[in-house]
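User: I'm putting together a teaching handout on how multi-component assemblies are represented. Below are the sequence lines for each component of a complex, exactly as they appear in our records. Could you produce the 3D structure of the whole assembly as structure tokens, so the students can see both representations side by side? Please keep the chain order the same as the input.
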Amino acid sequence: MLFSLGLLGVIMRRNLLVMYMSLELMLNAANLALVSFSRFNNKLDGQVLVFFIITVAAAEVAVGLALIVALYRKRQSAHVEDLTSMKL
Amino acid sequence: MKNELFPWLILFLPLLSAAVIALFFLRNKAVSSLISIGAVVAGFVMTCLFVTANGIHFSGESSVNWLTIGGLHVDFGLKLDALSMMMLFVVTGVGGLIHIYSYGYMHEDESMPRFFACLSLFTFSMLGIVLSNNFLMMFIFWELVGVSSYLLIGFWFEKPSAGDAAKKAFITNRLGDFGFLFGILMVWGLLGSLSFSTLQSALAANPAALGCCATLAGLLIFCGAMGKSAQFPLHVWLPDAMEGPTPVSALIHAATMVAAGVYMLCRTLFLFNPESLHVIAYIGGFTALLAALMAVQQNDIKRIIAYSTLSQLGYMVMTVGLNGPTPAMFHLTTHAFFKALLFLAAGSVIVGMHHEQDIWQMGNLRKKMPITFLTFTIGTLALCGVPPFSGFYSKDAILAQCLEQKNFLLFGVGAFVAALTTFYTFRLFFVVFFGKEKSDHAKHAHESPLVMTLPLIALAVFSFAGGFIGITNNYGSQLTPDHEMLSVLQQALEPLSNKLAMFCGLGAVAVGFFLAKSLYGNAASDPLPAKLGDLATAMKNKFYFDEFYAATFIRAHDFLAAVADWIDRWILEGAIIGAIRGGTDLSGRALRLAQTGSLQTYAFLFVLGVALLLYFVLGK
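Assistant: Of course. Below is the structure of the complete assembly, with chains in the same order as your input.
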């Protein structure tokens, strides 16, 4: 449910920041699922993996936010409709 | 062998000189000419020393292994025998005189250093041909000679005609060399060696070694000589080559390079069977006749001498074909003397006439240019074969060879050509030096400086005495098995041994002379066209060979080139390359429509893809 909310957010929302938050939502949904399965199966593998995901996500957030800030400075906008310069 | 280093030095000094001039002295006229002249003269001196140390009747080889590919061993070697040493004398001796003459002739030209660099390169290549002891090495120098000839014919490249003439000479020579290369490969394939001495001993041991290909191989090798020595049907380049400076015409297109073909035939005579020699003889005879007829109606002083060269080369080739290498080489040597002399004297006339070459603009130059006149006279008498000048002896030897081989047709051709030669040479002689001055230039003509007249005098001495200073002895000792040494007096009286040949030769000279005297003794314009009509026009236009080649070979070649161009343009480039390029372009354009550039679309498609994948992986 949480994952689907995040997915919808990425697909529907037009603001890069909000899309970004939705991405995080999806990551956290995955984390939640891993923790629950780990509890359900009585194994610690899932919880260990969650720690890795949180670490990587932190790094990813730093890079992603920096990119968004840089993009905003250049384009004065964080809306995806304005970011179609890859299309001829 | 004493002084073994000398031949190597003789060969490489001119190359060194060409390199030094090209690298360091392209701006310095005096130094460059001195280096170039020095290299040739040093070569001449060393040739003399070498021959005094070893004697002329000496035979040896000096070689280093050059390359080995599989079973093919090629030496870079020098063949030293009477034949090559006599040619060394001709190339360095006559060449040296022409180098010195060039210093005077080219004095006012801005690019004189370039001229001398090319001249040295030529000398190097020519010496290479003369000295080489195997076919491959000879072929390489053969091509080098072609290149330097190209450079020198096109020396005044700012004139379009000179550039065209250079290209024509080069391409025509290529045709001959193509056959030559095929011949060499054939000989190598059949006999497994390229070295002259190995080939000779192989053929001596087994005369049928070449089998059924003997005639073909001989004729292919003759193709090389046909190109270089300008034999019919590849004769067309030589007259045009006169666009080059006159010393070049004298050195390359009279004395040495064009003689290389004859030299090569004599060097490799053991390869030819009677059938191929027969063809060679008739081609030579036909060239001699054709060129002599063309010469009769030319008006450019250099072109007349050029056609005469063609005709004399035909003589030599004919003699080789009649199995007479000694008379052929004898004529080659005397011809080198007197034809170089004639060319240099003509150059002197051209300089005196302020670069006017039309003989009908000259006249009465004998008073203005006494030394040139005198030396030209000697050259003319030698060319016509008036006793006791050198040409008389060599031409007589050729006619005697025809009789000895019982080939009366070629004997008749020879005698007729001798008459024609006398006729056109004296036509030139009378029109240029006698009669009235036909233009203002002729009235103000002046004698050339000493640096130009001294080589003329030296060559005149040899043109006079070449017949009895032992040239036949030197060649004969190697080329004719039962040759006996003759003393000077015996040589001088040698023609008497075959009186028919001698009297026919002399009769031909007399007929030619009196015809020329009566027609041109005091003529202001050419009386011949009126008398001969169409024939004279045909002669003047060189029997329309250029036009014929332009209409057939060049047109066929143009057609082939157009077809190749069409295939390249429309099939290769248009259809094949165009289809690949167009296909890529089109699919790229089509695929581009799928790209919206919108992040959301991509994300949506991505999710769709994942969902599909999941469905296929897990759904089953």
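A couple of points students might notice: The two ends of chain B are 98 Å apart (CA to CA). Chain B has 27 helices and two strands.
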